[in-house]
Amino acid sequence: STYKIVHFSNSRKYNKENTNQNKLSAFTPNQSCQDSSSLTRIEPTIVYDETWLSNKQYNRRVAAFIDHIDEKFTNENIEISNKHTSSRTSSVYKVSTEQIIHKGIYPTKLETNLHLRIAVNGVSKSLRGQFPLSNSNLNNGDFGDDAGMIVENRNFCFVGLADGAGGNRSYGINPADFSRAILAACEKVLHRSNLKPNQLPRLIKSAMQQVEASEVQGSSTLCLLALDKQKHTLTSLNIGDSGFVIYRNNEIYCRSTCTMNSNGCAPRQLFALNDSIGLSCFMNETKFLQDCSLHNVKVQKGDIIILSSDGLWDVIECDQLQKVVERNKNKRLQDLADDLLKQAVDGYITDGRDDILIIVCRVGES
Q1: Regarding the domain delimited by 114-365, which CATH topology (the fold level of the hierarchy) does it fall under?
Q2: Distance, C-alpha 300 to centroid of its chain
Q3: Residue 109: how many CB atoms within 10 A of its CB?
């Protein structure tokens, strides 16, 4: 339906302005809205003017009339009788004068939508020699056993990261196969359905069914983020020790929780393996609904979201991470991703090599 904007005019003073009466629809409000203290009775005529709406022009007479009504009748209620054609029924509604006037004249102002600006960098532990500081293509980049995903539509933006478990190599399984397969399946489900951020568990379950049908075996950690552009909320689902942190004004605003197995000695993983291979730190698609970390948080323009595997989190401390975010606050988002990768690579000197994938997001307004 189209909003129709109304002009109010004194019927005695302004009738000459409403020369084309054939295009007008008039409605006389309840007499309690009239100024009884004045000899000249005000009978507003409502003129539906779609040109005024499209041009978004300001009408001083309309604003003056609203101010007059607000001053006289703020915090008062009026009764408007809605008489139906049937003589047996009659409905009475109570609404505030202020609500009637403003709702009739000005359409509801929609809140600004949010979006994510994204930068990527990472490296594979199998790379020999000097590490490159530019591996920013999420689809074609070499991130070893790590994999990433970005899917965006009109209302939502989904970002995902999976870290394939290197221990699967002892079973003759390439860890990268599963991490890539689970995120590729997530992309297919999102493109073919209208899933919402609060349906992330359903997304994973559908993706797991596709992975198992393709007979891909392996396991991985998994972290998914979903931005609701209209509601300004970020929903997260985390399995294992991959995760994210949100910075607001250079301070930690929110961070994910690592989910561990029942013994607390290994991170949880999503897996598709033969029944003969039973590891306590793994869980299938039915159990993760109970054990995953699922949260919802409000976000706003300027928030920085850093999503990564343990290749970053194992070698960087919170205070060091904060310094990196602060010194890149006025730089390009890619500069922040590059700086984070450099800090992680420097950490390899003492902690050994690991695959790294870093996805950095900045919340903006559309």
Answers
A1: Phosphatase 2c; domain 1 (3.60.40)
A2: 10
A3: 6
